[in-house]
Amino acid sequence: MGPDPAPLRVGITGHIHLTPATERLIADALRVELRRISDRPVHGVTCLAAGADQIFARAVLATGGTYEVILPAPDYRSVAIGPDSRDAFDELLRLATRVVHTGHRRSGTAAYVAANRELLRRIQRLVAVWDGEPGCHAAATDRTVDGARQRGIPTTILWPTGARRATATE
């Protein structure tokens, strides 16, 4: 017998603002999907944004896998991660097998687009937590899905029945 084959490299893209009930639905759906697409633990690739990315990182760990993080810019934690979510972000960042930087100095659309491109460069499959609605900026979920499809990367869209995005007050 030869060495074990390398784990399937799976990326995540998806919505940040999800209701608590939706977060639970997505966590369950991600665990099922990760087991469906690979008979062995996967290696995830994530930007570790709030919402879908962090749920994905936890699902990868729960199914025995590992993950790496692509940070858009050095200020990403303070700019994009809310104060109440920073402890969870720090813990997930600490558990990553590798942290990759885009080279952008400041967070913003250009850095997020670069991070999404780097994510697509590193994966064999993409999972998108997406309600199917078009995004409003160049780094939106739909753009990453389009980029994956243009590159021929198999993509699974997850949006379980009953899922919904959170409003600013939720």
Can you describe what's shown?
- The protein is of the alpha/beta class.
- The chain has a single domain (9-158), classed as Rossmann fold (3-Layer(aba) Sandwich).
- The chain is built from 6 helices and 6 strands.
- The chain has helices at residues 20-37, 52-62, 76-80, 86-95, 109-122, 141-150, and strands spanning 9-14, 43-46, 66-71, 98-101, 125-129, 155-158.
- Strands 4-3-2-1-5-6 form a 6-stranded parallel beta sheet, sandwiched between helices.
- Helix 1 (20-37) packs across helix 2 (52-62).
Instruction: Give the CATH level 1 class.
Output: Alpha Beta
CATH topology: Rossmann fold
Residue windows where pLDDT falls under 50 for at least 5 positions: none
Helix content: 40-55%
Give the SSE order as H and E letters: EHEHEHHEHEHE
Q: What's the main sheet like?
A: 6 strands, parallel
Please give the domain count.
Answer: 1
Spatial strand sequence of the major β-sheet:
4-3-2-1-5-6
Number of helices: 6
Report the C-alpha radius of gyration, rounded.
15 Å
Oligomer: single chain
Structural class: alpha/beta
> How much of the sequence is in beta strands?
15-25%
> Distance between the terminal alpha carbons, to the nearest Å?
53 Å
The coarse silhouette is globular
Number of strands: 6
Name the CATH architecture: 3-Layer(aba) Sandwich
